[in-house]
Write a structure and sequence with these properties.
The complex is a heterodimer of chains A (about 160) and B (about 775). By secondary structure, chain A is α+β, with helices and mostly antiparallel strands. Chain A has helices at about 25-30, 65-70, 90-95, 105-120, 125-130, 145-160, and strands at about 5-10, 10-20, 50-55, 55-60, 75. A 5-stranded mixed sheet of chain A has the order 2-1-5-3-4, with helices on both faces. Chain B starts with 14 loop residues before the first helix and ends with a helix.
């Protein structure tokens, strides 16, 4: 049976024809061609699939069903930079701090920080650490990611 | 010498695409006529396949084909030991093996059909322990071990489960023992572990008729994959095209050929379709390769003054159902268990043993962490016995100018300086007094020294192509896979430095395609910056020479009188006589269009000279080739209530020859140390008695998160130029993981007085030891 799910992704309205059993991650990747969110585990412990849903950072691989997805507003890594390609301060900070190695975990971590710092630009360090602890990275040892997060916060608070 | 690009940190060339989600990994690729594969895995770790019924599955919705191993006579091996079928034929040897492949229009339909396949098994006894399996002649995991084709450097023992026996026989043990005053010994256990790169292994395969095939793979080794697949199907190598887009971490786990032969075999039944298979996280752990897996006993002897006299070890590796990808690890762990010391008399037996577990493949360090674990724990024990400081004992025996390593190779000054590395670690570790035990914590400090050399095919090389564009900007093409280590950026800096043009005007290869990319053996052994960098230098020399040749007749000077500065070719003695590079790159064109000279494109390669396999009798020879030496150390505290080990400070000092990018080198080292901490305190693949992995998820198999990292990491690079590395650079990538476990266990010894000889050392293990102290 085909279900129609309505959602707004990166500002564009979509009617998704699907079985209704797909996760948000599958819809983004397979139906909309937005492959920036990655599947590292499939059960929400690595954080690579993190996107913003109605203002909150969530693991898109664990979010499924029409009741959960109907009418949601989604922001993915593809929608984060300006339309002219100018990067968001968090993206810039990741490049500047050398926080990107293989890049597979990067979109998820950036979206997690976006979720946190949009709601609370002055989030204390413990909250930033707590947010990052939901993510796995096997390359960096987290040091540069931590620096990038603090740098991003600085950039965001100064510009606001 | 001052550099413009070498030794400086820049934004990475692949950074923008990675922070915007543009970087395309294999799982992101969609192709026309795409189908999806799912794989049936066995219920038993060791069983005969009596029958497979696929009729119901074939009728299932959306299914195009169900492929089994029935009738398959193909064997493959990526490392020169052909002991594996692409899909189980008449027997299964571990629970992650492929038994049947379902190809359907969607992943869901393929999954659904799996449950409709009926397999009848006859279970066999399961062997998990390498020592037991090595001595069990009744249960053979491979009956035809003696028939498998293999390289001459592997020594299988038919009629047993030992598929490779490496022997090191150096010096005269009897004589050495006579000179020995003290002996220390230990039994060591290094568990199987999972690389856990974030990106799961994935592959897409499309056959064009019967004799051409195209593959998109998550591989560090596109050209090895090309060769293995071509040989499997008796195709010209040139008819196999392998694409490597972005790679989401490797750590060696993607250097060995794993899921590709299975999928290419299955896809052959559906030519014209692009068939995709992405491993689940569980399958990455059960059905690709694992790392490590060693049990060993070893002895070290010394004179009263601390001079090491003898080293004896026996190592057994639980290398899983297939031996191919573990053969060289067995060898390397064997001759590296001696440590970075000069010991005249060594007697080592290292056994690669079949067990009913997933095969073991390359994993960051490649036998060195296992070997280092032995040598560095024994040195610590010996220091205690001799009542000497461990550092003093290490210094007394360190490899240095003129000394011979376990392979009999003579170490030279330009191979690096262990003394400086140790001094750096000591200064950082001991500049304050160690905190005294308090109500909450016990404190400990430990150091370990290390060395690592590559292990590769003796003909391993890196090649480079350089193309000048019409405006004088440059395209540099290599085939070193960037899996996050920063290969592309390092190459861009080396190219910019040597070609003297701004980095922004150098476009470095992004994806690898065996059809267009120059040959590279594979991106392993931490060799790419070294070999690829050299290849750039050699190629750039050729390209510059073409520009000069093109300019010579116009400027009316011989090429030896000409100089190149990135923008112009000019006369050395009269710099105003010059021609812009952009006017030389396609030959020189006169006003009337007449063009003379050559197109400025060049290619060249680099290989380690004089590199060989160890000789069969003594296990010695020029098998190291180049070394990176280093020391690591840590200060830790133990929570007396919980037994938790908290690393306060971790120090690494490696002699890297020359730093290409300070930020990238720190990224490699800091990341490698955290991986090593996970290995030491948490990670272990666990099996039930019948051979099933009981923790094949990231919920149960816990890799480090941000809260598990050391409070502080110190990285100090020593720069003794390597004699033939690019700008003096030496290999550094796997190295930070080599001595982490031994450093931590030495620190735990300092803290508790207890010697652990196994990892992971869990909080429970520590609590048992300090029980009385809390």
């Amino acid at each position: 049976m085909t279900e129609i799910i309505n959602m707004t992704v990166n500002g564009i309205k979509h009617k998704i024809a699907c079985t209704g059993k797909e996760s948000l991650l599958e819809i983004l990747r397979e139906h909309l061609g937005l492959t920036g969110a990655k599947e590292g585990c499939g059960y929400g412990v690595c954080g690579s699939c993190t996107v913003i849903v109605n203002g909150e950072a969530v693991t898109s691989c664990t979010l499924r069903g029409k009741d959960k997805l109907e009418g949601i507003e989604v922001l993915t890594i593809e929608g984060l930079a300006e339309k002219n390609g100018e990067l968001h301060p968090i993206q810039k900070s990741f490049l500047e701090a050398g926080a990107v190695q293989c890049g597979f975990c990067t979109p998820g971590i950036i979206m997690r920080l976006y979720g946190l710092l949009t709601k609370n630009p002055n989030a204390p360090e413990e909250e930033i650490r707590e947010a990052l602890s939901k993510h796995l990275c096997r390359c960096t040892g987290y040091e540069a990611i931590w620096e990038a997060a603090l740098l991003a916060q600085k950039r965001i608070t100064i510009s606001s | 010498m001052s550099f413009k690009y070498i030794g400086k940190s820049f934004e990475k060339t692949d950074g923008y695409s990675k922070v915007t989600g543009m970087a395309q990994f294999v799982a992101d690729i969609k192709l026309p006529r795409m189908l999806h594969a799912q794989v049936l895995r066995p219920k038993f770790a060791h069983a005969l396949i009596k029958s497979i019924d696929t009729l119901e599955a074939e009728k299932s919705e959306g299914v195009y084909k169900v492929v089994t191993g029935q009738g398959c006579e193909i064997f493959f091996g990526a490392c020169g030991f052909l002991d594996q079928n692409p899909i189980a034929v008449d027997k299964v040897r571990h629970t992650g093996e492929p038994v049947a492949v379902v190809i359907a229009d969607t992943v869901q339909h393929a999954k659904k059909a799996l449950s409709k396949i009926d397999v009848e098994y006859e279970p066999l006894p399961v062997l998990l322990d390498p020592v037991e399996a090595a001595h069990n002649k009744d249960v053979l995991i491979h009956q035809k071990l003696g028939e498998y084709p293999h390289l001459p450097s592997y020594f299988p023992q038919p009629g047993t489960n030992i598929f490779h026996h490496y022997r090191l026989r150096k010096g005269d043990m009897k004589k050495g023992l006579k000179e020995t005053d003290f002996i220390v010994e230990g039994e060591f256990e290094f568990p199987l572990s999972a690389h856990s790169a974030l990106e799961p292994h994935s592959v897409i395969c499309r056959w064009e008729g019967k004799d051409r095939v195209e593959i998109w793979a998550t591989s560090q080794a596109p050209f090895v994959l090309q060769q293995v697949i071509a040989d499997m199907f008796k195709l010209p190598h040139s008819n196999v095209r392998v694409h490597i887009p972005y790679l989401g971490g490797g750590f060696g786990g993607k250097s060995d050929v794993t899921i590709e032969p299975m999928l290419v075999y299955a896809a052959k039944f559906l030519p014209g379709y692009a068939i995709k298979f992405v491993c689940s996280r569980k399958e990455v752990m059960t059905s690709t390769v694992l790392g490590r897996g060693m049990k060993a006993q070893a002895k070290l002897g010394a004179k009263k003054d601390g001079t090491f006299t003898v080293f004896q070890a026996e190592l057994y590796f639980s290398d899983g159902a297939f031996g191919d990808t573990a053969t060289n690890i067995v060898t390397v762990a064997g001759h590296n268990s001696v440590g970075p010391y000069s010991i005249d008399n060594c007697h080592v037996d290292s056994y690669g043993v079949y067990t009913n577990t997933p095969p073991v493949g390359a994993y960051r360090g490649y036998g060195h962490p296992e070997g280092n674990f032995i040598s560095e724990r024994l040195v610590e024990l010996m220091a205690k016995k001799l009542k000497m400081s461990p550092s003093e004992l290490r210094r007394k025996n360190f490899l240095c100018e003129g000394k011979k390593n376990s392979l009999g190779e003579t170490i030279r000054d330009y191979n690096g300086n262990l003394f400086k590395c140790l001094e750096n670690v000591e200064k950082e570790l001991f500049f304050e007094l160690k905190p005294k035990e308090d109500d909450k914590y016990i404190y400990g400090r430990g150091i370990a020294a290390m060395m690592k050399s590559p292990k590769g095919a003796a003909n391993a090389a890196s090649c480079c192509q350089i193309k000048f564009c019409a405006d004088g900007s440059i395209q540099v093409n290599l085939s070193g896979v960037d899996m996050g280590q920063g290969a592309q950026q390092a190459m861009r800096q080396i190219a910019a430095e040597y070609l003297k043009i701004p980095m922004e005007r150098i476009s470095i290869f992004r994806e690898i395609d065996t059809q267009h990319s120059p040959w590279e053996w594979q991106t392993v052994a931490s060799m790419f910056t070294y070999r690829g960098g050299n290849a750039i230098v050699k190629t750039a020399e050729k390209a510059i020479k073409i520009l000069k040749k093109n300019a010579a007749p116009i400027l009316k000077f011989g090429i030896d009188s000409l100089e190149y500065d990135g923008e112009f070719v000019y006369v050395k003695t009269d710099p105003d006589k010059r021609i812009a590079v952009k006017n030389l790159v396609r030959g020189y064109m006169y006003e009337n269009g007449l063009t003379v000279g050559e197109v400025a494109e060049a290619t060249a390669g680099d290989r380690l000279p004089g590199y060989t396999d160890p000789d069969p009798k003594f296990g010695m020879g020029s098998a190291g080739g180049t070394w990176t030496f280093g020391c690591q150390g840590c200060e830790l505290k133990i929570d007396k209530k919980t037994g938790e080990v908290i690393i306060d400070k971790f120090i690494s000092s490696f002699d890297v020859g020359k730093v290409i990018s300070p930020r990238m080198i720190r990224g490699q080292i800091v990341g490698g140390v955290v991986m090593g901490i996970g290995q030491t305190l948490k990670e272990k693949i666990k099996f039930s008695e019948d051979g099933k992995i009981t923790n094949a998820t990231w919920v149960k198999y816990k890799i480090p998160r941000i809260n598990d990292v050391p409070r502080k990491q110190v990285v100090i690079c020593v720069e003794t130029p390597e004699i033939r590395g690019p700008y003096g650079a030496r290999c550094i990538a796997e190295h930070p993981m080599v001595a982490v476990s031994s450093s931590i266990l030495n620190a735990l010894f300092d803290a508790t007085g207890h010697n652990f000889f196994h990892i992971p050392v869990t909080s429970e293990d520590v609590l048992k030891v300090i029980g009385g102290k809390a």
